[in-house]
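Quick note —
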Amino acid sequence: MALRFYTRKRREVPTVIIVALIDILIVLVIFLMVTTTFKQQPALKLALPESSQAQKTGASEAPPLVVSIDPQGQLRLGADARPVTLERLRQELLGAVAKTPELRLALSADKMAPFGQVVKVMDVAKEANLKVVNAYTKETGKP
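Predicted structure written out below.
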């Protein structure tokens, strides 16, 4: 009895089409970019006052210039919350209004912030001819 050895054909290594994989990855990245929403996190943690009329800002609106007032009454300007004095805030607002006449100001004050500072910021905004000054609040009963 003789042993028969079968000679097998070598199987070809499966080919991976890299171009197709790259196309699929690009489509996935575009899908994730379109469906992801980005929430702007404030640089300063404030306990906002509650309001029954609190509203969320629309995504299509131009973002307002944000002035934050912490519980000690310190002023901070912009999304990066850089500290400013009242005089520096006046200069920044005048410069910003000169560039963008329809600029809106959003006041984000802690509920324990001195009310005098809030009034001073509103006075500076009026001096700079800002038409719209909103206050950030949170809905009643929301954390």
